[in-house]
């Protein structure tokens, strides 16, 4: 037998020392197991990797098993047994428990060698510390879970916000809010409490898991909230996040108040309506304590802001509803007035005019000149009153007696109006030129009234010693893309004259009821005609405006929408 030389022994020791240094730097170890007697025949760096004291390792397989976490031990043995049966390779990740009870993750890669007869006799394994990798993976997984959760919560928050903005019913909004928030936070109870002037609260909405006390509909008073300091803090936007009411630094009365609703942790956010504290949005955890995250707190704060916006919108809607109801009431009164005007007022006027005519015929010779003048004035006043009532009736009937829209040929309507105004045109020596006018969906009677008022005014307000010339034509506007996408185009009806014109400061005023710029001795009329024109255009979803310069005529522009008929 050849003896190992001292020089060779030294080289082996140096090689082992270098290998230990390399394995230690790489957080690795190598060991070889004699399968027949479960003895470690060689092992390098095992104590360091398994956290054992130097020379405390007894070179047995059981010593390795004792270091392994109890949850991984059976799996560790089963993998080795399969490798021995298959006489193949193996790889396993497992945990070892160090002397200070900390955990270290290892990965073991090895192979089983048989002897010449095929019996497994030896197993060699390389162990490597992968604790840092496992920590990084766990941290990354946690970050991914947190990101996924925040993404989900963000999407759900967006859905809640959309529901809030789509709904005009505050009751539905509050219901949606508590239901969705409970799902978002997986809280045991979510409440909306409305604050009253005496600082008591009414639970107006609640979403709660089965088995817990129901708060909905209860009126409650928290003596702590009666403290002006606490109240002012909430008025300034205070958010309260209590993870455990038993250990939190809160007053005993507040703890007792929460315990009656089985609360162990709560998150409270104020709700403001137009900068005034309206109430509280509250999440309760009742089955266990809970640490509220910054993201959850911010979520509830933003939702409270959205509820505040919805409350403000609801207040505006309520005012608009009241205003609309007031308008309906006013319209009903206007209809009643129209009925009275068409019956009770007109009958006395007809009698005044009829008996006035009889008086002229039967008593003409017996009336003095002054008496006859009085009679003439009386009848003229009755006629003006009759005209005024007729115009007011026409104004009221724009909406109360409106007809459904049908296809209206404006050119034909204009010709009919000229026929009605034939006598006035002859008296003034005027001329009316009709250009191209479209066919539109409209109320034919109101379109006739519109053109008759505009053309009649143009003939009436002409310059002395100069016959009126009136031009009526239409033009299509450069419509925007949004309207064209909805097959809607706008056009204008223009009535232009060479009359007396009017100052620019009166261009808006003339469309108001009873607005006259001239005396009755100069020009007849009631001051209602252009108000009727404006109401007709508004009923047809359009507008009317005037352009004029004194002494240079006037131009009235009616802008109306028209549905475009597309050929398929």
TrEMBL record:
Q: Does the keyword Magnesium apply?
A: no
The reaction(s) this protein catalyses? ATP + protein L-histidine = ADP + protein N-phospho-L-histidine
Tell me the lineage of the source organism. Bacteria, Bacillati, Cyanobacteriota, Cyanophyceae, Nostocales
Query: Under which EC number(s) is this enzyme classified?
Result: 2.7.13.3
Residues in Phytochrome chromophore attachment site domain copies? 169-306
Q: What is this protein called?
A: histidine kinase
Top EC group? transferase
List the InterPro entries hit by this protein, alphabetically.
GAF, GAF-like_dom_sf, HATPase_C_sf, HATPase_dom, His_kinase_dom, HisK_dim/P_dom, HisK_dim/P_sf, PAS
* Record's keyword annotation contains Lipoprotein: no
- Organism source for this protein? Anabaena lutea FACHB-196
Tell me which residues make up the PAS domain.
15-87
Where in this chain does the record put each PAC domain?
90-142
| Domain Histidine kinase: start-end pairs | 340-564
